[in-house]
Amino acid sequence: MPRGYTGRYLEVDLTEEKVRVKDTFELPLRQYLGGKGLALYILYRELKKLERTMTDLDHLDPLGPDNVLVFATGPATGSLFPYSGRYHVMALRSPLTGYIASANSGGDFGPYMKFAGFDMVVVKGAAESPVYLHIHDGKAELMDARHLWGMTTFRATDTILEEVGDGGRTRVATIGPAGENGVLFANIINDKHRAAGRTGVGAIMGSKFLKAIAATGDSKPVEPERPEEFREKVKKYLDVIRKNPVTGEGLRKYGTAILVNIINQHGLYPTRNFQTGVFEKAEEQSGEYMAEKYLIRNRACWGCPTGCGRITKVPKGPFQIGYSEGPEYESIWALGADTGNADLESIIKANHLCDELGLDTISTGSTIAAAMEMVEKGFIPEERLEGVDLRFGNSAAVVEMIWRIAYRSGFGDELAMGSYRLARRYGAEHLSMSVKRLELPAYDPRGAWGHALNYATANRGGCHVTGYMISPEILGIPEKLKPLSTEGKAKWVKDFQDFTSVVNSTVACLFSTFALFADAYADMLAPLTGWDLTPEELMVIGERIYNLERHMMVKLGFRPEEDTLPRRFLEEPMPEGPNKGSTVPLKELLREYYRVRGWENGIPTEEKLKELGIIP
């Protein structure tokens, strides 16, 4: 049996109030690794069961009891493998996108889930009243959570820790009021400030009346198959990480917000709902500025050699807060430049509220930004806003709308649907900066065409971390590519997407890929698991995972025309900055991408699925 796994996972049926322990080793670990890959495999089995019982998968309600939710660790989680403090969350259908729900989070919870004795938790059905799951010492039990319902993520976490009486051995992943109220982009918060943020996984938990999962265990690193060799390999790559200018210096010193000035200077820092790629006050919300004015200290996730997390405070003023974590680059942008807001103090406060209430910061800020443009262009009448001056640059309005979204109060109820449904309601669908109904993150695709192609083809929708092409196109890692060029971009995007699938299945932090590539992953996974996988075999695993996800999307109703970008990027030239005049040549990029993938019009061929062992 391979090492790196506990060998057991939980299947929790909330409808029947039953918890079953199952054998992980009966699953195809070598084909899917763990994390995202193994969660997808489990969900694919469930999808095929539903196909036999459901006349039409369109009837699969993402907020109904038939949706299946999976929390998954990987072979690296909780080991000495660098950046191994993460877990992956997936579900059959996202309430926001309609396709596979997928989210990833750091902190401590992932390792503690494994320390508690389990590789995965598979959640089915729906409880009659609120519950939470407590896993500990290879056991699990459902606990009454009616007293927790309505609590913020912070208070719920503290209450559960007090009830468990864990002596520091417990970590909690929970939803807040946003998840309870069915906000379509509600997230799951673990360790109070780390988020499984995207695609509405928090709303799925809320629909199942599952308030939280608490994991109790001793923090002993996972034993590898070949301990001495594994320690030598880890030592070797830790040295590489420390000497790398991004992982060893930039992220450590300024966190992810080091990107603010870099991306703005390259002219793809989205401003005022992506109307331009240059924000005139970017410096005032940069990592350098935050370190000077608001930083208390760094914070690292479990097993992280970099420590890019920020602990911050706002000492006085209307947005005063004594302790918070973050904000990260994406949150600074979404709650800042995208809404025209230059006030970093309000951004820190808004980010804190998103963590407390359980909201994805990217979709929250992007939806507010879309609403602001719709208000300014006359699509949304002033009387709908109930007195809130929802215009670009109004920092107080950004903070106010976060409360209203989480509790679905007034106009916040409409924003809780996400920017796509909001814009469609008011006849302004073109003003939703989303792909497959998931809001885009903090890079204007008109300034990086490979990244544009990744946006268009990312399985979970408008996602930057499916294949982070900013790395080669802007940062020059592993080599510098011309951002406004189509040459070779399709192969680069495919490789980045496949390798990211490996990272998310291992499960490790994506920031490791600034310094480590497939050869390093294969080199460390071999003594950890006992499998002597080559880098090429590892990339095939990633390709298998990516194709399985797309194959499942097709079954859920994916249409080829959804591999696209908002009209703004295809028809409206960038108005200023280094990329002035640029639009995205998407048709050319897509044609080559499908050829490289072996897909026909965005859909994996039967030949490709057989080649990868997805179908017999």
In order across it, which strands form the biggest sheet?
Answer: 2-1-6-3-4-5
Class computed from helices, strands and strand pairing: alpha+beta
The proportion of residues in beta strands is 5-15%
**What's the CATH H-level superfamily name of the largest domain?**
Aldehyde ferredoxin oxidoreductase, N-terminal domain
Shape: globular
CATH second-level architecture of the largest domain: 4-Layer Sandwich
Per the CATH scheme, the topology name of the largest domain is Aldehyde Ferredoxin Oxidoreductase,  A, domain 1
Distance between termini?
25 Å
Concise synopsis of the structure shown:
It contains 24 helices and 19 strands.
Describe this structure in words.
- β1 (8-13) and β2 form a beta hairpin.
- The chain has 3 domains: 8-216, Aldehyde Ferredoxin Oxidoreductase,  A, domain 1, CATH 3.60.9.10; 257-437, Aldehyde Ferredoxin Oxidoreductase Protein, subunit A, domain 2; 439-611, Aldehyde Ferredoxin Oxidoreductase Protein, subunit A, domain 3 (Orthogonal Bundle), CATH 1.10.599.
- α17 (449-457) packs across α19, α17 packs across α23 and α19 packs across α21 (535-555).
- The protein has 24 helices and 19 strands.
- 39% of the residues lie in helices and 14% in strands.
- A 6-stranded mixed sheet has the order 2-1-6-3-4-5, with helices on both faces. The chain has a 6-stranded mixed sheet with strand order 8-7-12-9-10-11. It has a 3-stranded antiparallel sheet with strand order 13-14-15.
- It is globular, with a radius of gyration of 22 Å.
- By secondary structure, the protein is α+β, with helices and mostly antiparallel strands.
